[in-house]
Amino acid sequence: MCIEDDKTLVGRFQAGEAAIFDELYSRHIDKAYNLAYRLTGDSDTAQDICQDAFIRVYSSLGRFRFEAKFTTWLYTIILNLARSHHRKKKWAPIDDFPNIPAETNGNGMLHKIDRKMTKQAVRRHLQKLPTREREALILRHYEGMSCSDAATVMGCTEETIRSLSFFAIRKLRDALREEGFEL
Q1: Total domain count for the chain?
Q2: With contact defined as beta carbons under 8 Å apart, do 39 and 79 qualify?
Q3: For residue 60, what are the CA distances in angstroms to 13, 16, 70, 101?
Q4: What gap in Å lies between CA 124 and CA 7, rounded to an integer?
Q5: Is the separation of the CB atoms in 85 and 52 below 8 Å?
Q6: CATH number of domain containing 77
Q7: Nearest alpha carbon to residue 98 among 167, 152, 39, 162
Q8: Does 116 have pLDDT greater than 70?
Q9: Which of 72, 119, 127, 166 is a plausible cystine mate for 68, CB 3.0–4.6 Å?
C-alpha cells in the first residue's frame, strides 16, 4: 500500500475528489489538536479551533497554491484562530500537553515525581512567556517545525524565529533555575 503525500492528496481534491479530504483530516487532526491545545491550554477551545480550521481548509483547499507545505498552511490557520481566541479571552492555564511521552528509564517513583514537577513548572512558565515567544517555542520545539516553516506560519523571518526561541528558552531556563531546578 502506497501512502500518498499531502501534495498529491491536495491535487486529487482539487481535481474533484472531495472524499479525499477525509484522508487529509485523519492524517492531521491529532497534530492540529495538539498545537491548538498547546496554544490555548483548553481542550474545548482546541477542539473548536480544529473544527474551524478544517472548515476553512475544506472551503479554501481548491485554491491552495502550494506556496508552502500543507501542514505549514494548516498551522498558520490554527495559529491565527488561536490568536483570535486570545484577543477575545485571556489565555487559559495549560494543564497538560497531550502526546508528551513519559520517560520510562528513570529510577522508580522519585524520578516520576521529579519529572512531573519539572513538566508542571515548564508549563507554568511557558504560560508566562510573551505570546510570540511562546508561539515560536511551541512551533519549533514541541511541533518540530523548521525555522523556515515556523517563520511562514508566524509571518516573520527565520531570524525572528531563532531570536524568539532563544529568548523563550533563556527565560524558561532562568525561571526554572530560580525555582531550584537543575538544568
Answers
A1: 2
A2: yes
A3: 11, 14, 12, 34
A4: 38
A5: no
A6: 1.10.1740.10
A7: 39
A8: yes
A9: 72
